[in-house]
Amino acid sequence: MTDTDTELRVNKIRSGTVIDHVTAGEALHVLAILGIDGTGGETVSLGMNVPSKRLGKKDVVKVESRELSQGELDVLSLIAPDATINIIREYEVVEKNRVTRPAEVVGILQCPNRECITNAGEPVDTDFSVLDDGVRCEYCETIIRDDLTAHIDV
Amino acid sequence: MLGRSLLTAKQLSREDIETVLDRASEFAADPSAAGDRHPGKLLALCFFEPSTRTKMSFETAAKRLGGDVIDMGSVESSSVKKGESLADTVRVIEGYADGIVLRHPKQGAAKMAAEHVDVPLVNAGDGAGHHPSQTLLDLYTIRENAGLDDLTIGIMGDLKYGRTVHSLAHALTNFDVRQHFISPQSLKLPRSVRYDLHEAGAHVREHEELEAVLPALDVLYVTRIQRERFPDEDEYQKVAGQYRITPETLDDAKDDVAVMHPLPRVDEISAAIDDTSNATYFDQAHNGVPVRMALLDSLLQTDD
Q1: Closest partner CB to B192 (pick from A122, A124, A141)
Q2: CB B107 to CB A138 under 8 A?
């Protein structure tokens, strides 16, 4: 691979999603939300602690051949509230969105309370309301404030 | 007015509470006069955990209103033993009954169950979560003894896992009440309840010693500290002894402090309290019938 190839790989993708302005240090958590662990064959490029005018430092995640679902964006907004989502098709940005904090997050997080009905094998999706500083299970009311990514059920 | 189901005390407004308690007063005055309220209505009792008072008072209330009950029986003798989900169980039972009373060991069980049925559903306890019909009878008892405003209430014992405490604390935010929570550090109120009380702007203090607040109390609500929550017996005995109410304990209390307990008690209230004017817990248990009559009357009314 030549230097030019490497630069192209990092800077431009043919199609997929570029997640920019991710909170510095959170890029690996973003991959966790997307369920990307390298075994699925996706081509992924990461920039960590990249200089940013707006944030000082930021992470950038580029995922080829993959567009994010609304549910993924919802959870992403909780750990990377300043993120911008660029949808790329044929090397062009066809859509550019900021993530917005949702009122609730359904079916994405697992409740850490083993006594919660959502962990009892019942036909029910998890449902967390979003607080100013965390999320709260709508069933057992457990509040999660730290390390949300540890509770992602993807 | 109160919605179709009662799942948590958080859904109760002051108006809801006062309407139910006023109606309960009427039923208490003449329970046999309500026999024509809901003739033929069937209430399904689904108790996935043991219960004496709650189950029997709902059964009595339904019958006093002219209705009847069907009882799922013990979990061991039901289809739950075959692995049937709670969602399926309540969906089947709604076809048999006009309302469901559910007790279940998992938190959030009542909310989930209510999402699967169209008949009114009452949460009669969901693990360490909520027990809102108990709260209504607690409030009725408090109102009978001390009114519901300008009150100082101490709530003591297992505040972490005590579902009656969680529901009562939420409901009291509707009134001008100073709430004092007394517990060992390890059994303090859960974060979610403290969050709600803070959001509601409630006047709340937390203590480890009863002595600090006892002289100011109009009501002392005691709950059982559960032995099984403690890693060793010595730790339990140390704490349990500290929270035991005896006649001597009440020397520093107001003469008319009402001592309440959702029952069953083990040894957290001495039997020597039973014959004093402070003992309110048996009246509290008896109040379960008229209060649950009023609650069912309201919920079943929406179905008529």
Answers
A1: A141
A2: no
Out of A105-109, B104-108, B233-237, the most confident range is B104-108
Domain B132-285, CATH:
3.40.50.1370
**pLDDT (average), residues A120-139:** 95
Instruction: For helices B288-301 and B132-146, give the axis angle rounded to 10 degrees.
Output: 120
For B9-130+288-299, CATH number out of 3.40.50.2300, 3.40.50.1370, 3.10.450.50, 2.30.42.10 equals 3.40.50.1370
Dmax (CA) for chain B in angstroms is 56
Token pair belonging to A42? 């996706």
Which residues of chain A make contact with B115, given a CB cutoff of 8 A? 124
Q: Which residues of A touch B (CB under 8 A)?
A: 113, 115-118, 120-124, 131, 136-143
A31 is in an annotated binding site: no
ipTM, two decimals, is: 0.94
B72-122 residue pLDDT tens? 987 777 767 778 999 999 999 999 999 999 999 999 999 999 999 999 999
CA angle B241, B153, B233 (to 5 degrees): 20
